[in-house]
Amino acid sequence: MTATDDDRIALQARDVRFDFSGLRTDWIPGEPLASHVIDVLHMLLPEGERWFVEVFSQALPLVRDAALAEDVRGFIGQEAVHAESHQGAQDHLIDAGIDVSGYVEQIEWIFSDLLGERGLTGAEAREWLVERVGLIAAVEHFTAVLGEWILHSPDLDAAGADAEMLDMLRWHGAEEVEHRSVAHDLYMHLDGRYLRRIRAMLIGGPALAKLWTDGTAVLCARDPRLRGTPQRRVRLRDYLRAARRGLVPGPGMFAKAVLTYLNPRFHPARYGDTDAAIAYLAVSPAARRAGGTA
Ligand SMILES: [Fe+2]
Ligand SMILES: [Fe+2]
């Protein structure tokens, strides 16, 4: 199954800008742990989404379907802007005195070295490319699920979360929901083997969980505002409490996402609410300021 013509929307990159100059490190007021759980995205995504762009740009010439090729180009445009927007948020964390070096260098190593080019040619190069597209399809299932979550997270509004950061996360989340089928469709077009798709999830899922846990610990330990406080150390029960209060995605959501992905008939179009994504993009302050395409 691929997205039907009825589901298909022309993916556009929006030339958004965000101003984080006044952002507090606990941008969910009084909730540094919940703020930093979400802030991990600003350390993972700049490198991660640039890598998506690189891999998809290499895959594009292999696509033998005009509509899919158009989707892949739209995906590339959107992910490039996502990476730069999260880079802006990461720069703000650094300006706020949080030393993210070491952790960010590890992320750079993962995407540039471990998952980068290997100087392969011919069939080997194609296999490595398809392997990475499969990994991106698995990660894109999580970004779609996270996008769906952030679009329906009224507890963040009720907690007084910073409006600029919320708009950035919801604009990004809405575009993730919009383009949630593209990586899966590309993988199915190039290869489509079930076991390879599942292997990608079984590698990508735990790797993401480990990076997220480590990233949260780094941010809390190095946030100058938390110096000398017990919140410097991340405790599982505090995370679970924040999740129960709707401030961060809970572990059950991720577990369900993995189980959904294991279904041999899985297709992202069956999950997620495109209408809600489009509705948010119509009112997003940043998207409205951006007007046309990037
Ligand atoms: Fe993205
Ligand atoms: Fe994405």
Can you walk through the features of this model?
This is Metal-dependent hydrolase. InterPro entries: UCP07580. It holds the Pfam family Metal_hydrol. The chain has helices at residues 32-59, 66-95, 103-114, 122-151, 154-158, 163-178, 182-190, 194-222, 236-244, 251-262, 274-283, 285-290. The chain has a single domain (32-290), classed as Ribonucleotide Reductase, subunit A. By secondary structure, it is mainly α. Helix 2 (66-95) crosses helix 7 (182-190). The two termini are 30 Å apart. Residues 79, 140, 143, 176, 179 line the site of one fe (ii) ion. One fe (ii) ion binds at residues 79, 140, 143, 176, 179.
Structural class: mainly alpha
Distance between the termini: 30 Å
- Radius of gyration, in Å, reads 19 Å
CATH class: Mainly Alpha
Content of β-strand? under 5%
Order of helices and strands: HHHHHHHHHHHH
Low-confidence stretches: none
What fold name goes in the CATH topology slot? Answer: Ribonucleotide Reductase, subunit A
Helix content class: 55-70%
Ligands, ions, cofactors: fe (ii) ion
The name of the CATH architecture is Orthogonal Bundle
> Helical stretch count?
12
Biggest sheet record: none
Sum up the overall morphology in one term.
Answer: globular
Overall pLDDT score:
95
Give a count of the beta strands, DSSP E runs of length 2 or more: 0
Any idea how many domains?
Answer: 1
Pfam families: Metal_hydrol
Protein name: Metal-dependent hydrolase
Organism: Pseudonocardia ammonioxydans
